[in-house]
Design goal:
It is a single chain. The protein is an alpha/beta fold. The chain has a single domain, classed as NAD(P)-binding Rossmann-like Domain (Rossmann fold, 3-Layer(aba) Sandwich). Helices cover 46% and strands 16% of the residues. The protein contains 7 helices and 7 strands, in the order βαβαβαβαβαβααβ. The chain has a 7-stranded parallel sheet, with helices on both faces. β1, α1 and β2 form a beta-alpha-beta unit. α1 crosses α7 and α3 runs parallel beside α4.
Length: 248
């Protein structure tokens, strides 16, 4: 039975900023080999170089999670480079909030592609390797909005409820292969998610609210580390956390 983070191979989508970047730094500092996926190749290249210069193991792979072949390439490269994949963190996400009546249909489609299909593609890319190993850990990122529905966030909430449903179905299906599953639902955390909001009135109000209570992205990184660090016979299935000051 193994325990800990050191020497584990961790693939992270959405690693160019926010939760993904903070987690990559946190796990690399604890001895994990991190493989970074994101569309902004310059950001993940810089992060990988910084981590490598500090003596850690890191690789960057430009990845759009809406393209299954790119996600598969990310995971397959991790296995070729490091011999296995221990953790798949499906972190990439978008949050362009707006009331349904504003008919932001392009944004709905993009959220479905990134927030739901992106998670499915990550699962699909990692699962064959983990089944062959008979070990592994898939971590999906939901949200407090995967537990409550707020006016103006309806479609985003729907995608995050879907992530929780996918995670529970996955948990039940992978038991024969000794694979662990975790879904993490953060509250108000300081990230670039608010920059995705195209409706300026919604963005302004949300930023004002979040700026008063938000906690750092390192809080999420510690939650990931907690789940990963547990012994293999402990399956931490769900983590929901908020700033102490957050009412919903």
């Amino acid at each position: 039975m193994s325990q800990g983070i050191e020497n584990k191979v961790v693939v992270i989508t959405g690693a160019s900023s926010g939760l993904g970047e903070a987690t990559a730094r946190h796990l690399a500092e604890r001895g994990a080999s991190v493989v970074l996926g994101a569309r902004r190749s310059d950001r993940i290249d810089t992060l990988a170089m910084e981590l490598t210069a500090e003596g850690h193991k890191a690789k960057a792979v430009p990845t759009d999670v809406t393209d299954y072949n790119q996600v598969k390439n990310l995971v397959d490269l991790a296995v070729r480079e490091f011999g296995r994949i221990d953790v798949m963190l499906n972190n990439a996400g978008l949050m362009p909030l707006a009331p349904l009546e504003r008919l932001k249909i392009d944004e709905w489609e993009r959220m479905i592609d990134v927030n739901i299909k992106g998670v499915l593609y990550g699962i699909a890319a990692a699962l064959p390797h983990m089944k062959a190993q008979r070990s592994g850990h898939i971590i999906n990122v939901s949200s407090v909005y995967g537990h409550v529905v707020d006016p103006g966030a309806t479609v985003y909430c729907a995608t995050k409820f879907a992530v929780r449903a996918l995670s529970e179905g996955l948990r039940r299906e992978v038991k024969p292969y000794n694979i662990r599953t975790t879904v993490i639902s953060p509250g108000a955390v300081s990230t670039e998610l608010l920059e995705h909001i195209s409706e300026k009135d919604i963005q302004t109000g949300t930023k004002e609210f979040v700026s008063k209570i938000a906690i750092g992205a390192d809080s999420f990184a510690r939650m990931v580390a907690f789940a990963v660090n547990e012994p293999d016979d402990v399956d931490v299935n769900e983590i929901l956390f908020r700033p102490t000051a957050q009412p919903i």
